[in-house]
Every structure is written in structure tokens, then in C-alpha cells.
Amino acid sequence: xxxxxxxxxxxxxxxxxxxxxxRDISEAMLLEIIDSGETRYKDASHLWVFxxxxxxxxxFLCAVLVLDGYVIVKTVMHHFTLT
Length: 83
Known about the structure:
The protein is α+β, with helices and mostly antiparallel strands. The chain is about 25% helix and about 45% strand. The protein contains 2 helices and 6 strands. A 6-stranded mixed β-sheet has the order 1-2-6-5-4-3. The radius of gyration is 12 Å and the shape is globular.
């Protein structure tokens, strides 16, 4: 998988893969979140990317990312809210 937005290959952590299965988030949905979702940066390389999928009823889906020559997906969340 490759992110056009960040121009890096995507690596999904084992933890994120488990959470994706639990939350019914496909790799295609994950890539859509990464490449077209809204972003909130913690710092230059750590961020949250989130997107609403209207057909789902669990609020925003969010990917927690680290940018370090790759897009590293640490985990994915549902029912995500901005605080």
C-alpha cells in the first residue's frame, strides 16, 4: 500500500491490523482515511487522520500515524471525536 498524500509506503502495525478486523475497517478504507481525511498534528511526524463514512454509524474513523520515511499506522479508532 502507498499513500499518495504523504508520498510514502504504508506500514500497518500488528496492533492496527487487529483493531481493523475488530472495527470492520478494510485496507481500502484505511487508505481513503490516510489520503483524504482531515488531519491533526501532534508534532511534525505524529498525527491523527480521520474521516466520516456516512453509511457507518460509528462517527469518524481515525488512524493514528507516524511519518518516518513510511506512513506507519499505529492503531485505528472508531467513535472518534475531536477534543
